[in-house]
């Protein structure tokens, strides 16, 4: 008992050191517990991947080959370490022969995809920017109709992963997000997505899976990282400082758009079997004795472009990929515009929400559905 009293007396006499020791031990215990939970998640994912690797393959079949386009600069330079720890072991245990191609600069993924040979699987390890570059390079290829049949997997390693909620379940644990995305690739869980084509007057077209932003919120979002030293207040501070430089932030823009068109039917996943010889001979004789009547060519009606003048803080043209499973009748995109009557407080509050999800809009926003649109900016620049 005397020893216990002595310990408490020592802690009371050196309460500053004791408080510091408790804080350090608490933080260390929390950090070790987090590492243990990450190790458990990795072990469970590897056990599932090992079952894929134990599956037997036919003698004439080879291992699946996958090309990984990795952006090492994603996640503040931690993408390579995150991939090697959480995704690469799963792919190796599943028996996938992977070839990792690391990008060195912005825009390199486009050039790599234009020259890359056909592969069984294409995996993008990065963020929204890397995925956009890969899709753009793929659809610029001369043989893009054939190459587009290659399944594309996405491992979220970037700071912005807007498409991840549409592809798999997300959690607050980054390791769990990476392992679940890698397992979804192994299971072959594919989702058809719309692609937004963006054309300029001179440059080659650019393709996007999420959308195109233009306005004040997008400008501020590009500067938030500069105020990293403000911690959780950096988003609010960036929006407030932007209002000091320029206010109001209203932009005038002219939009020309076409009405939505009916969505074409989905193509069959497998080519139908060729009919037998007797059936082909009967069909040819039938067409010879009773040839089908040729219909006159349809006269194409001129496109009816509608114009609308907008005064907005931000314009966002987006696809329907936020909910790709939903069945839609029309083939269209969404044109969303924020109102022009924001106060400074409302601008800061809305900007903080858009930092987490850029597709969140205020109640009074304008929304149009169109099959195609043209934008005329005040500087006479077309997008």
UniProtKB/TrEMBL annotation:
This protein's pathway: Lipid metabolism; glycerolipid metabolism
Keywords, comma-separated and alphabetical: ATP-binding, Kinase, Lipid metabolism, Membrane, Mitochondrion, Mitochondrion inner membrane, Nucleotide-binding, Transferase
GO molecular function (one): acylglycerol kinase activity
PROSITE patterns reported in the protein's UniProt record: DAGK
GO BP term (any one): sphingosine biosynthetic process
Subcellular location: Mitochondrion inner membrane; Mitochondrion intermembrane space
Membrane topology (UniProt): Peripheral membrane protein
Domain DAGKc: 61-202
A Pfam cross-reference name: AGK_C
Catalytic activity: a 1-acyl-sn-glycerol + ATP = a 1-acyl-sn-glycero-3-phosphate + ADP + H(+); an N-acylsphing-4-enine + ATP = an N-acylsphing-4-enine 1-phosphate + ADP + H(+); 2-(5Z,8Z,11Z,14Z-eicosatetraenoyl)-glycerol + ATP = 2-(5Z,8Z,11Z,14Z-eicosatetraenoyl)-sn-glycero-3-phosphate + ADP + H(+); a monoacylglycerol + ATP = a monoacyl-sn-glycero-3-phosphate + ADP + H(+)
Cofactor(s) listed in the protein's UniProt record: Mg(2+)
Subcellular location, principal: mitochondrion
InterPro entries, A to Z: AGK_C, ATP-NAD_kinase_N, Diacylglycerol_kinase_cat_dom, Lipid_Phosphate_FormReg, NAD/diacylglycerol_kinase_sf
E.C. no: 2.7.1.107, 2.7.1.138, 2.7.1.94
The keyword Cell wall biogenesis/degradation belongs to this UniProt entry's keyword annotation: no
Statement: the UniProt record of this protein carries the keyword Ribonucleoprotein: no
One Gene Ontology term, aspect cellular component: mitochondrial intermembrane space
Entry similarity comment: Belongs to the AGK family.
PANTHER family: ACYLGLYCEROL KINASE, MITOCHONDRIAL, SPHINGOSINE KINASE
The protein's name in its UniProt record: Acylglycerol kinase, mitochondrial
Organism: Nothobranchius furzeri (Turquoise killifish)
Gene field: agk
